């Protein structure tokens, strides 16, 4: 059994152990092969595991830098085949290089454009925050034919939160470069009991998109992709949480 198949089995077993009930919507939109950039909202440490199980194929997630530093989280990241982002303030060149290499191998790469803030501040299930545009730059600059960007909404309609469990200042011991940890409060832990995973309409990156990105319309091309994914996920959340 390959390590990728093992990741998929671990994800399904983990959710079964927690008793998480997963409901799929529009799963016919999920490609079974080829390079895919999965874009999703983010509220729980379970999200990478949930999406891997839901999409039925291993996904290599870009995760926050601190997750590669904190014990237990570091082991979980390694087991799931995720790769931490660069330290804050150091750019994202390493992220682009790793993600493009994975996509060139026709693997799936997952990103959470809201970043780490929803993980340290409890947010409502039907809300999506501001999107960072790094994923759009990645999609438009990756030299991959027929790259598919797949927006996915994680819409919990029954969950359990353990509230504030891990002090943020404690996490700063492992990653002092992260400004989010230099504040009072704690890291909430959200567990899904019943959750809708809603697959959005795919966005295919065409030769025309790449031409626009390399020219004077680069900013518009990035904004179009960013806004499309954010609007698609927000609309799906509104449907899935009620």
From TrEMBL:
Database matches in Pfam families: Acyltransferase (PF01553)
A biological process from GO: phosphatidic acid biosynthetic process
Residues in Phospholipid/glycerol acyltransferase domain copies: 36-157
Keywords, sorted A to Z: Acyltransferase, Transferase
Keyword Transferase: yes
Keyword Transferase: yes
Record's protein name: 1-acyl-sn-glycerol-3-phosphate acyltransferase
Protein source organism: Merismopedia glauca CCAP 1448/3
């Amino acid at each position: 059994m390959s390590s990728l198949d093992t990741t998929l089995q671990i994800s399904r077993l983990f959710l079964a152990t927690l008793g998480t009930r997963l409901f799929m919507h529009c799963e016919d939109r999920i490609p079974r092969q080829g390079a895919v950039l999965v874009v999703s909202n983010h509220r729980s440490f379970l999200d990478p595991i949930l999406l891997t199980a839901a999409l039925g194929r291993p996904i290599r997630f870009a995760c926050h830098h601190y997750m590669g530093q904190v014990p237990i989280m570091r082991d979980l990241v390694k087991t799931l085949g995720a790769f931490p982002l660069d330290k804050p303030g150091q750019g994202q060149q390493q992220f682009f290089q790793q993600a493009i290499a994975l996509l060139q191998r026709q693997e799936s790469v997952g990103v959470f454009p809201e970043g780490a803030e929803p993980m340290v501040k409890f947010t409502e299930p039907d809300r999506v925050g501001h999107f960072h545009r790094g994923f759009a730059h990645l999609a438009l600059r990756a030299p991959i034919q027929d790259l598919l960007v797949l927006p996915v909404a994680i819409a919990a309609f029954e969950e359990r939160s353990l509230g504030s469990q891990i002090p943020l200042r404690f996490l700063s011991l492992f990653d002092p470069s992260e400004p989010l940890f230099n504040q009072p409060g704690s890291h909430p832990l959200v567990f899904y009991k019943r959750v809708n995973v809603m697959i959005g309409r795919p966005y295919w990156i065409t030769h025309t998109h790449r031409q626009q990105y390399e020219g004077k319309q680069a900013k518009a091309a990035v904004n179009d992709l960013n806004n499309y994914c954010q609007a698609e996920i927000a609309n799906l959340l509104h449907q899935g949480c009620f």
